[in-house]
Amino acid sequence: MKIFTAIIADDEENLRIAISVLLERLWPELQILGQAQNGIEALSLIEKEQPDIAFLDIQMPGMTGINVAKKVSNDCKIVFITAFDQFAIQAFESEAVDYIQKPVTEKRLETTIARLKKQLNNCRQSRDFDLKFKKVLQMLENRDTPDYLRLIKTRTGSEFRFVPVSQVLYFKAEDKYTIVQTAEKEYLIKTPIKDLEKSLDPGNFLRVHRSSIVNIERIRSIKRSFTNKMILGFDLTDHTISVSRSYEHLFKGM
Partners of 231 in the beta sheet? Predict the structure, then answer.
């Protein structure tokens, strides 16, 4: 039986390890030849090892996973690792490129493994498959849909956790950190408010203060304080956020 090989490239070490452990359990015959923490290392590793499969994070420093995929031989099957649904739905449906979504689940990886085995055991790769592959990469590179953030990566000690942005009530700058507040828990990240604002869906998240962004889908109440400040209340919690005067117009009519 032929032994297939793979490399894993992602800028988060814990995620690389998690994928490697899952693959070892679900596909013990697969040989992992190495890991890379950025796109440049990934391309170098692929060129050196010539793996059958490359698990590539779409958003890597140095070179994106898409750019790496464009430079490798079509003999290397590509599986993108992404936190964004919209990156790869069309790619998944075309069966030319597969993807696993963060946080990676065993069930989803089992589906990917089954598809990879089917492709790898098909010795004759059609010209149609090659065209689909190139078309999907072009679509991902030139996509019109904004890549809005879906998951926030947080860290508590040595443990990493991905928090869905849909669960976030608000983001608030605090000293050198940004508070990520959900109904159940507070997390701290180092991403500045101004950078977060660029990556969030403006249809769901609004800047209400120079230090605060709120999830409008989680707003429960709008009221005035005794000093006439506009105060926002949220679902399932007593947390509130004040709206600065310059942003109050966003809530007129709500």
Answer: 223, 242
